Amino acid sequence: MKGSLYLVPTVLGDTPPSEVIPASVFGVLNRLKHYIAEDIRTARRFLKKAGSSVPIDDIQFMELNKYTNENELAGFLQYAKAGFDTGLLSEAGVPCVADPGSRITALAHKSGIRVIPLTGPSSIILALMASGLNGQNFTFHGYLPVRSGERNKILKKLEQESALKSQAQVFMETPYRNMQIMDAIISVCKPSTLLCIASDLTLESEFISTRSVSQWGKKRPDIHKRPAIFIIQNIDKK
């Protein structure tokens, strides 16, 4: 009998796991001895912080990241195929959303391994929930192009699609480039377009606010090197 693949949520920052992760998840952590993780050191720290009763030295870790070759993927499910339940850990939040773990999940389905998602914090969903923008019709675009010319073209396109489809457009940026993308949104998008900036979600320094682009232009928050989600919605269909 094959084991299951548990999609295990982690914290989004330096927050006590008990504050953002349901008690049922800790029950799973107290018995899993096999994990697939994006970074083994981060995974070990999280399990210790979560109070896993399984000794760290008894746990088998396999490291999966964006550099992992496709030919290596099958080996990550070796324990599940042998009958051992296996946990999949992301670097932050829920696995497989803007995360390389989705490749393992797809392979698990093909291999007849049960996939069990566990409830936990998702910066994308938390930002959308709190934004006041369209939570029934939205698209997540991940990271936008780094080069300013390409990025600005994409921003204009997203703004147009938002108006045509009444759709919230969700994206993120590497924290040290947050100020640049905020400046780009303010310079490229219409003054009436709404922009939600959600930073440091679930942390004590959490900041979430939705304002028009023109309002943001008057006072820009300092979100340099702070994890953030950006959501735009063009409410002017002209």
Distance between the termini: 59 Å
Structural classification: alpha/beta
CATH architecture of the largest domain: 3-Layer(aba) Sandwich
Poorly predicted runs are: none
Count of runs of 4 or more consecutive helical residues: 9
CATH top-level class of the largest domain: Alpha Beta
Output the CATH topology of the largest domain.
Cobalt-precorrin-4 Transmethylase, domain 1
Percent range of helical residues: 25-40%
Radius of gyration: 20 Å
SSE pattern, N- to C-terminal: EHHEHEHEHEHEHEHEEHE
Strand content: 15-25%
Rounded mean pLDDT score: 95
* Total domain units: 2
The tally of beta strands, per DSSP, is 10
Shape: elongated
The CATH H-level superfamily of the largest domain is Tetrapyrrole methylase, N-terminal domain
What does the largest sheet look like?
5 strands, parallel
Instruction: Output the strand order for the largest sheet.
Output: 3-2-4-1-5
Assembly type: single chain
